[in-house]
Amino acid sequence: MAGLLSPSVMCADLLNLNDEIKKLDSLGVEYLHIDFMDNKFVPNITFDTNMVRSFKKPMKNIKRDIHIMAFEPEKFFDAMEIGEGDMVSFHYEASDDAHAVIAELIKRNAKPCIAISPDTPVEVVKDFLDEVYAVLLMTVYPGFAGQPMAPGSMERLSELREIIDKSGKDVLIEVDGHVSWDHCEEMRERGADIFVAGSSSVYGKDYPLDEAVPRFYSLVK
Questions:
Q1: Is 210 a catalytic residue?
Q2: How far apart are CA 37 and CA 73, in angstroms?
Q3: Phi and psi dihedrals of 135, rounded to 5?
Q4: Nearest CA to 186 among 209, 163, 212, 158?
Q5: 170-181 pLDDT, tens per residue?
Q6: Neighbouring residues of 15: CB distance < 8 A, sequence distance ≥ 6
Q7: Local confidence pLDDT in tens for the 221 residues of the chain
Q8: What is residue 154's predicted lDDT score, i.e. its pLDDT?
Q9: Contact residues for 96 (Cβ-Cβ < 8 A; gap 6+)
């Protein structure tokens, strides 16, 4: 399977979001990465649940990739109208019963994903590989864009890929954090499938979006 792209809406042109989403849709982008924060699990706030819900309106083929950085993630599902086609990540570190959260996402016909922060051992995902669509590997600390990559992230990616491959499960790996032009090819080689791209690649200053997206795909094919 070729690499999949999930541009971060935090880095998009927020004054022209509808047009931006339509442009990504026309470029064949699979997902739109939407960060939701509660100012508790991480000390920041991005889009509220109304905004997360509103992103559905201009979408044609592109799907929501919702990254919930919040305690008790399940309490936000109704307000976000989580449903079929949505890929939803929640943090292992933020839930008292991750299995129950996954079960609720499956009930809603969403694609459940479990996210792990840089300080969390990758081995924790072993308990969830029968249930999740993907593992979201944070290569920066959750909460803020534009950070440098956390030390050891590439090695953690390789380790995670090995764990999943040995399990025999068809689970994808999504990488989030400093997914740059310099790093995306190595991330792909080490086993990443879905790329959360932002200011260090598709939303950088080097290329307009309609050139940056095809270029990114060429590197992670």
A1: no
A2: 10
A3: -110, 130
A4: 158
A5: 999 999 999 999
A6: none
A7: 899 999 999 999 888 989 999 999 999 999 999 999 999 998 888 889 999 999 998 999 999 999 999 999 999 999 999 999 999 999 999 999 999 999 999 999 999 999 999 999 999 999 999 999 999 999 999 877 667 899 999 999 999 999 999 999 999 999 999 999 999 999 999 999 999 999 999 999 989 999 999 999 999 99
A8: 98
A9: none
For residue 142, what are its two tokens?
């959750």
- The two tokens of residue 74 are 């399940």
CA separation, residue 129 to residues 204, 207, 215 (Å):
34, 37, 32
C-alpha 27/C-alpha 95 separation (Å) is: 36
Residues comprising the chain, all counted: 221
DSSP conformation letters of 108-130: TT-EEEEEE-TTS-GGGGGGGTT
Told to judge if 78 belongs to the known catalytic residues of this protein, a careful annotator would answer no
Of the CA atoms within 13 Å of residue 182, those in its CB half-sphere come to 7
User: From CA 12, how far away is CA 26, in angstroms rounded?
Assistant: 16
**Selected catalytic residue, list 38, 65, 86, 176:** 176
| 35, 38, 65, 86: the active-site residue | 35
